[in-house]
Amino acid sequence: MTSGGQLGAAGGKRPMTVYCETPYKRPMSSSGRRLVDMMMRLKNYASTVVAAMLAEDEAWIAMVTFCEIVMAKKEAAERDRERADPSRRRPRRADGNHRPIPSDL
Questions:
Q1: Whole-structure pTM value
Q2: What is the mean pLDDT of the chain?
Q3: According to DSSP H, which parts of the chain are helical?
Q4: Which of 2, 16, 35, 38 is positioned for an S-S bond with 28, CB 3.0–4.6 A?
């Protein structure tokens, strides 16, 4: 990630721009700076989590279990919302089923 200020055509100063490893430039307003800071922290955190998962089988199993529980709870909450408001119902899968919820929740 690089950043830099640039002068506009009329000599006025443009907002600072950040280059986030993409072909797009992002203006650095105060909310933009916070977003870029958060994205960079998440990128570093994700690298750490992946490294731990690859280093130890126990860490891999812990992350997989965590993700399965989170997804099951998310899907259960969605089904509860669908029951409460039938207009929110999503189409069923081709086999007519939804993903089962693990019983240990």
A1: 0.44
A2: 72
A3: 30-55, 57-84
A4: 16
